[in-house]
Design brief:
Layout (H helix, E strand, L loop, with lengths): L2 E3 L6 E3 L1 E4 L9 H13 L4 E3 L8 H12 L8 E6 L14 H15 L4 E6 L8 H14 L2 E7 L3 H14 L6 E3 L13 H8 L2 E2 L25 H4 L8 H5 L2 H17 L3 H10 L7 E3 L4 H8 L8 H10 L11 H6 L9
Parallel strand pairs: 3-4, 3-10, 4-5, 5-6, 6-7, 7-8, 8-9
Antiparallel strand pairs: 1-2
Helix pairs in contact: 1-11, 4-5, 5-6, 9-10, 9-12
């Protein structure tokens, strides 16, 4: 397994992280524990969860797995998140000091640990001043309850504001950001990736296979059926069948991935994951396996090496659809410059 620094921190994590949103929902406890066992056996040391995943059940499943072998805890980097509702009250959500104090203690209790290595704000909170959130996180680091902190689903300006507010006050800085990122979803490259590179923030992409689309299991104009996420729910959020099926770009990307996979004798998922793991600022790609078989296949991406022309082909065919300004060709030219001069 390849290992990388967790953003600009000194902590070291595997280039592929085990996401556990499926635990207690799409994977029962015994399957979840087997997935955890397999991930660690393959060299993985980075596990990501959240309090809101199956209303705390995911954290509880991980906690019971850790308790079964206390020596595991010291070999792993455990990440969780807080921000979304864990109750019906007005203070049962958000990134206020009031909510985060309760949320963090509850996550520690469910996981059965005395500290969390990476504590992440699951989304921006427009009602809480970022200074309040950052001061709480700085205090949590100082108290030893968390080692590092990061964010998820922040926009570029929100990330930059948080970084520089922490710097201005002398507080501990963030080290990571979890964005949605894949060959199908590359919008973060306009603002968020440059902001992360500027601040030394490590990216932890979620939905790296575009909700299963990049695994190659779907066919154009043939609605999915059976025990797949889209087969069970074709209208599933951002991954919904009809809007993506209607775009020729979707199938151009999938076809390119499949052809490269065939050339290497590997799965389409492995090609898509490898391309993403090699992108600038990416620290660790979050794998959301429902089964042990899915995890085993996904982890083989760690050993895959794409040729330069293959990477370039995937990058070109998946170029994101951008507005004319400020992200079109002329705008990009205005934000760059040749060192030798001229146009």
């Amino acid at each position: 397994m390849e290992y990388r620094n967790l953003g600009a921190s000194g902590a070291v994590v595997s280039a592929f992280c085990l996401g556990t949103m499926t635990f207690g929902h799409e994977a029962d406890e015994s399957t979840s524990h087997a997935i955890l066992d397999d991930f660690v056996a393959a060299g993985g040391n980075f596990i990501d969860t959240a309090d809101v995943y199956t209303a705390g059940t995911s954290e509880e499943i991980i906690g019971r797995w850790l308790a079964a072998d206390p020596g595991r805890r010291d070999r792993l980097v455990i990440a969780t998140k807080g921000r979304f509702p864990m109750g019906e009250g007005p203070n049962d959500l958000g990134t206020s000091r009031r909510h985060l104090r309760t949320a963090l203690d509850a996550s520690l209790r469910r996981l059965g640990v005395d500290h969390i290595d990476l504590y992440q704000m699951h989304a921006w909170d427009p009602l809480t001043p970022i200074e309040e959130t950052l001061r709480f996180l700085d205090d949590a680091v100082a108290s030893g309850k968390i080692g590092y902190y990061g964010f998820s689903n922040f926009l570029g300006w929100q990330l930059t504001k948080a970084v520089y507010e922490a710097k201005a006050h002398g507080w501990e800085p963030p080290v990571t950001l979890q964005p949605q990122y894949s060959l199908l979803v590359r919008g973060i490259e306009s603002e968020i990736v440059p902001a992360a590179l500027d601040a030394g923030i490590g990216l932890l992409p979620w939905s790296p296979l575009g909700g299963g689309w990049l695994s190659g299991k779907y066919r154009r104009d043939t609605a999915p059926t059976g025990a797949t996420r889209l087969g069970e729910n074709p209208q599933r959020g951002m991954e919904a069948w009809e809007p993506r099926n209607a775009k020729s770009r979707t199938w151009e990307i999938i076809d390119a991935v499949r052809e490269i996979a065939d050339a290497h004798g590997v799965s389409s998922a492995q090609v898509a994951l490898r391309w993403l793991a090699d992108r600038p600022a990416v620290t660790s790609v979050i794998l959301g396996a429902r089964t042990r078989e899915q995890l085993a296949d996904n982890l083989k991406a760690d050993a895959l090496q794409l040729e330069q022309e293959e990477t370039e082909r995937l990058t070109k065919v998946s170029e994101p659809e951008l507005d004319v300004y400020p992200y079109g060709d002329q705008a990009v030219q205005q934000r760059s410059r040749k060192i030798e001069g001229g146009r």
